[in-house]
Amino acid sequence: MELVQRYWMLELIAFWEGQINTKPLMTALGLTRQSVSQLLKQYQADFPNSLDYDAKRKAYQITDHFKPHYIDQTVDEYFDWLNYGKIPTFSNAAKDATQHRIQALARFVSPQVMRPLLQAVKDKTAVYCEYLSVSSSDPQGRLIYPHSFVKTTGRWHVRAYCDMRKQFLDFVLSRFQSVDYDGKTTEHTGQQDTLWNTQVTLILAPDSRLTDKQKSVLENDYGMTDGQLNITTRAALVKYTLDDLQIKTKMLEANPQAQQLVCVNYTDIKQWLFD
Q1: Are residues 189 and 119 in the same domain?
Q2: Which of 170, 193, 216 is the last residue of a domain?
Q3: Which pLDDT score, from 0 to 100, does residue 248 have?
Q4: For the chain, how far is it from start to end, CA to CA, in angstroms?
Q5: Is 197 left (phi over 0), alpha (psi -120 to 50) or beta?
Q6: What is the pLDDT of residue 273?
């Protein structure tokens, strides 16, 4: 692995978790403790005043002078590595001009928001936050116990038990105004989140108003079997899944070519929908 990739890994963990020590780098990079210690020293030499060793925590804390040089500072980049081990190649080779990808608009997520949330998920503890919802004009303070992060089209959520509402809810990461680590141990873990642990099957099919030829095209597009496609998801994610697939449940598009797919078993899954 090239030095630039090692620096990328170091910055990624330090930026999103607020600190870095030898253990995660040893695991991620497959290096010995001595090699990682040398890497940290080399990074400090190349970028002075970026890291400050905290003997009490036995970790290097990022300083106010810390400025990433290798990461793109998006939360997607962090979770792509955390969940899939994705590491950029930093290749100088020319990009294939025949391949294009439309980039979705990324919503800004602050590392100051993520750091206490990541710690709370790891420790199964609480955070105190100021959260601005669409339905309120001012941020509301509340204690939440986060257990999982969820990616939907264009934005990230954290699934958490809300002490104020006394139920598990989804919180959009970009709408947190502030988050402070509380440390109170939760009695409401992901195991108690019924909607999170309930598996639901969505049965999709081409809009019945389409012609047989149009239906055949869609069946081929989605690899359907007997004209249907089954998708299994969590009950808590049913609405997001349908939204991501642009499938309306309350009202069909006037033009069936705009609707394309419909949910066949709406009666079975409507209990998992929310306004």
Answers
A1: yes
A2: 193
A3: 84
A4: 48
A5: alpha
A6: 87
Please state the φ and ψ torsions of residue 132, each to the nearest 5 degrees. -105, 110
CB within 8 Å of 77: residues ≥ 6 apart: 12, 71
Q: Say whether both 211 and 254 belong to one domain.
A: yes
Q: Are 168 and 229 part of one and the same domain?
A: no
* 136 CB burial (10 A radius; 0-12, 13-18, 19+): exposed
The one-letter amino acid at 105: L
Q: Cα–Cα distances in Å, from 204 out to 87, 210, 222, 243, 264?
A: 35, 14, 10, 13, 6
Which residue range(s) make up the domain with 66? 3-72
According to DSSP, the residues that pair with 17 across neighbouring strands are none
Instruction: Determine the length of the chain.
Output: 275
Number of domains present in the structure of the chain: 3
Q: Which of 186, 193, 149 is nearest to 171 (CA)?
A: 149
Q: How many Cα atoms within 13 Å fall on the side-chain side of residue 115?
A: 17
Query: Could you report the per-residue pLDDT of 90-134, keeping only the tens digit for each?
Result: 876 556 667 777 666 667 899 999 999 999 999 999 999 999 987
Residue type, 46: D
* 153 and 209 housed in the same domain: no
- Give the residue-averaged pLDDT of 23-44: 94
Residue 242 lies in a domain: yes
203 and 264 Cβ atoms separated by less than 8 Å: yes
Which whole-number Å values give the CA distances from 219 to 177, 222, 258, in the listed order?
Answer: 44, 6, 16
State residue 76's pLDDT score: 93
H or E element: which one contains 203? Answer: strand 199-206
CB-based contacts of 137: which residues, under 8 Å, 6+ apart?
A: none
The dihedral sign for the CA sequence 249, 251, 256, 259: negative
Query: Do 219 and 174 share a structural domain?
Result: no
